[in-house]
Amino acid sequence: AGPGQAAMYAGLQELGVANGEDLKETLTNCTEPLKAIEQFQTENGVLLPSLQSALPFLDLHGTPRLEFHQSVFDELREKLLERVSAIALEGKVEERYKKLEDLLEKSFSLVKMPSIQPVVMCVMKHLPKVPEKKLKLVMADKDLYKACAVEVKRQIWQDNQALFGDEVSPLLKQYILEKENTLFSNDISVLHNFFSPSPKTRRQGEVVQKLTQMIGKNVKLYDMVLQFLRTLFLRTRNVHYCTLRAELLMSLHDLEISEICTVDPCHKFTWCLDACIREKFVDNKRARELQGFLDGVKKGQEQVLGDLSMILCDPFAINTLALSTIRHLQDLVGQDTLPRESPDLLLLLRMLSLGQGAWDMIDSQVFKEPKMEAELITKFLPMLMSFVVDDHTFNVDQKLPSDEKGPIPYPSTIPEAFTKFLQENRIACEIGLYYILHITKQRNKNAFLRLLPALVETFSDLAFSDIFLHLLTGNLTLLGDEFALEEFCTSLFDGFFLTACSRKENVHRHVLRLLLHLHHKVAPAKLESLQKALEPTKQSGEAVKELYNQLTEKLELRKPSPAEVTETPSMELPLPTVPTPASR
C-alpha cells in the first residue's frame, strides 16, 4: 500500500479494526488465499444475518462488493452526520455535550481517514469547547487545520494571536487595495465616486463578510481584529483602516450579534453616525444624539475617545461632516448668523476635530478631545462665508444694467489669511478643500480659479491626497468646456497639478486619469505641452507608465492621417501679436 492508501486506513488499527495492511499480511502468510479472503470478508463484513443470503444476488447482477459496501458506508455516514447535528440541539446542555465528547474520543483516531474525517469534523464543529489536546493536534497538522470548520478554528485562534494574524493579514491587504483601486479608477464621474456606495452596500464587501464570519460571536477575536486595525493605522496612517473598524462593527450589528455589540462602547455612536453617512448629512436630531454620546464620556473612561476618534476618522464620516459643515455655512449666510452662534455647526467642528486628531490620540495615548482654535470659528469660517457672499454679489451685479464703467470684475485676490489657514490648520484645510469641491460642483469657474492658488501648499499636503484629488477630478468633468481655454488650463495644470507631479506619484496618476477622460476638450497646443510634461521618468511606477501609454494611444488615434492634412506649408515663425489700437 502506498502513502495514499495508508492514509485511507489511518487509525483503524488503534480501534482494533482490520485494514488493508492486515489483509496483505494474511495473504502473504497463508496457503489457501481464497479461503483466507472469504474468512476476512465474513469477519469484517456487515454483520447482518439476513444480508448473507442477499449478497449472492448482487454477485449475479455483477455489482462489485466494493460498490455495495461503499453505498452502505455513505448512507451510514449521512445518517451519522444528521444524528450528530441533532444531538447538538437536544436534551440538557451538559448531556448533549457529554455525548459529543464521548463520540469525539472514540472517533478522533480516524480523523485522517478521508471517508470518516467529515464525521469527526462535524462533532468538533458542534462542541463549544473542543479538548485542548485535540485542538493542538489539529493545529499541528496543516491539512487537518485546513479541513476543520470555522467554529473549531475560532477556538484555535483565540489563544493563538499570531496564527489568527496570519489569516487576517491578507484580507486587510486586499481591503486596502480595493479602496485604492476605487480611488484610482479610470471611470471619472461626478455621480459615481468613492463615496457613492451606501454603508449597507459597503458592508456586503467580501473582506468585511469574511472577517465577520471569522469572528462569529467571539469577543476575543473581535478585540484582536480591532487591535490589528489600530496597530496598522498607527504604522501607516492609512485612514481606510478606520473605515473597516466602523464597517465591521456595523456588519455585526446587522446580524444582531449582541454578544459583541453590547460590549463595544462605540456601538450606539457608530450606529447613529452610520445613519448620517447614509443620508450624507447630520440632521439636528442626530446631531443632538451624537453630542449626547460625546458629553456622556465619564471620568475614567476617556479611553473610549480613542475608539470614537477612529470611527470619526473614517473618510466616509469626514465626508459627511464636511458636507454638512458647508451646508450649514450657506444657511448661516442666508440667516445673517455668525458661525459662533450656531451650536450645530460647533458640534460638527468638534467631531471633525476628534476625527482628524485620531492618529495623534492613539499614538500619544492621551485621551482627551483636541482643543478647538477660536480663530477657526471667529476668522476662518466667516471668511468662507464672505466668499459665498462675493458670489451672490457678483451674480446680482451681472443681472443689473451695466453703467459706463462696464461690468464689475469677479474678485481675483484671496485673503492671505485664507492661504495661511489652509497651511497651518488641519480642520480649516479640510473644510476649505470641501468648499472648493462644492464650488467646482456648482460649475463656479470664477470662484474655483480664485481659490486654486491656495491649494499648492496645504496642511500635510492634503490638497494632493488621493481622496481629494479623486473627488476634484470627478467634479472637474462638469467644467469640461473650460479646458479649451488656455488661461483655465494654465491655472489648473501649471499652477496646481504640475507643481507636485514630480514629487508625488499619486498626483501624476490623477492628472493622467483626468486627461484620459477629458483630452478631447483640451486645446491641442496645451495638450501637446502637457503630454511632454507628464512623460514618465525612470523612477515612475508601473501605474503611471500604463496610464501614460493609454493616453498616448488615445492621442495617436485622434491625430488626422497625413492624407487629410492640407498641403499648404506651415509657417515656421510665429506671427507677431499686433496690439489693438486704444479706443478713442
Automatic annotation (TrEMBL):
GO terms for biological process: negative regulation of transcription elongation by RNA polymerase II. It comes from the Eukaryota. GO terms for cellular component: NELF complex. It holds the Pfam family COBRA1. Residues 558-584 are annotated as: Disordered. Transmembrane segments: none annotated. InterPro entries: COBRA1 (IPR010405). This is NELFB factor. The lineage of its organism: Eukaryota, Metazoa, Chordata, Craniata, Vertebrata.
